[in-house]
């Protein structure tokens, strides 16, 4: 089997190292690559939390009202579907 041949160890090691090093360099140096995605996700989370804080600072009771309306709508739908059966 060529994978277990002692004479090909060095060439397999060389090409594997060369491939992995070039792959690593392209990932680290590319601004829009894997590291760029993590940077974009971090910025997006900061933007979402900033918007969330802005909404909460405007009217803190509005979220509670939305939750109450949603819960009452869900309960009324559940009761109406139970009474139809």
TrEMBL record:
<comment type="function">
    <text>This is one of the chains of the nonenzymatic component (CF(0) subunit) of the mitochondrial ATPase complex.</text>
</comment>
<keyword id="KW-0138">CF(0)</keyword>
<dbReference type="InterPro" id="IPR003319">
    <property type="entry name" value="YMF19-like_N"/>
</dbReference>
<keyword id="KW-0406">Ion transport</keyword>
<comment type="subunit">
    <text>F-type ATPases have 2 components, CF(1) - the catalytic core - and CF(0) - the membrane proton channel. CF(1) has five subunits: alpha(3), beta(3), gamma(1), delta(1), epsilon(1). CF(0) has three main subunits: a, b and c.</text>
</comment>
<keyword id="KW-0067">ATP-binding</keyword>
<keyword id="KW-0547">Nucleotide-binding</keyword>
<feature type="domain" description="ATP synthase YMF19-like N-terminal">
    <location>
        <begin position="2"/>
        <end position="82"/>
    </location>
</feature>
<keyword id="KW-1133">Transmembrane helix</keyword>
<keyword id="KW-0813">Transport</keyword>
<dbReference type="GO" id="GO:0031966">
    <property type="term" value="C:mitochondrial membrane"/>
</dbReference>
<keyword id="KW-0472">Membrane</keyword>
<dbReference type="InterPro" id="IPR044975">
    <property type="entry name" value="YMF19-like"/>
</dbReference>
<dbReference type="GO" id="GO:0045259">
    <property type="term" value="C:proton-transporting ATP synthase complex"/>
</dbReference>
<keyword id="KW-0812">Transmembrane</keyword>
<keyword id="KW-0375">Hydrogen ion transport</keyword>
<feature type="transmembrane region" description="Helical">
    <location>
        <begin position="7"/>
        <end position="27"/>
    </location>
</feature>
<dbReference type="GO" id="GO:1902600">
    <property type="term" value="P:proton transmembrane transport"/>
</dbReference>
<dbReference type="GO" id="GO:0006754">
    <property type="term" value="P:ATP biosynthetic process"/>
</dbReference>
<protein>
    <recommendedName>
        <fullName>H(+)-transporting two-sector ATPase</fullName>
        <ecNumber>7.1.2.2</ecNumber>
    </recommendedName>
</protein>
<keyword id="KW-1278">Translocase</keyword>
<comment type="similarity">
    <text>Belongs to the ATPase protein YMF19 family.</text>
</comment>
<keyword id="KW-0066">ATP synthesis</keyword>
<dbReference type="Pfam" id="PF02326">
    <property type="entry name" value="YMF19"/>
</dbReference>
<dbReference type="GO" id="GO:0005524">
    <property type="term" value="F:ATP binding"/>
</dbReference>
<keyword id="KW-0496">Mitochondrion</keyword>
């Amino acid at each position: 089997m060529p994978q277990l041949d002692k004479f090909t160890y060095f060439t397999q090691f060389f090409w594997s190292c060369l491939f992995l090093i070039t792959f690593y360099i392209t990932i680290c140096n590319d601004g829009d690559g894997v590291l760029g995605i993590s940077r974009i996700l971090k910025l997006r989370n900061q933007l979402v939390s900033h918007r969330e804080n802005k909404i909460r600072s405007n009217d803190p009771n509005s979220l509670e009202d939305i939750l109450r309306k949603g819960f009452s709508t869900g309960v009324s739908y559940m009761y109406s579907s139970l009474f139809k059966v």
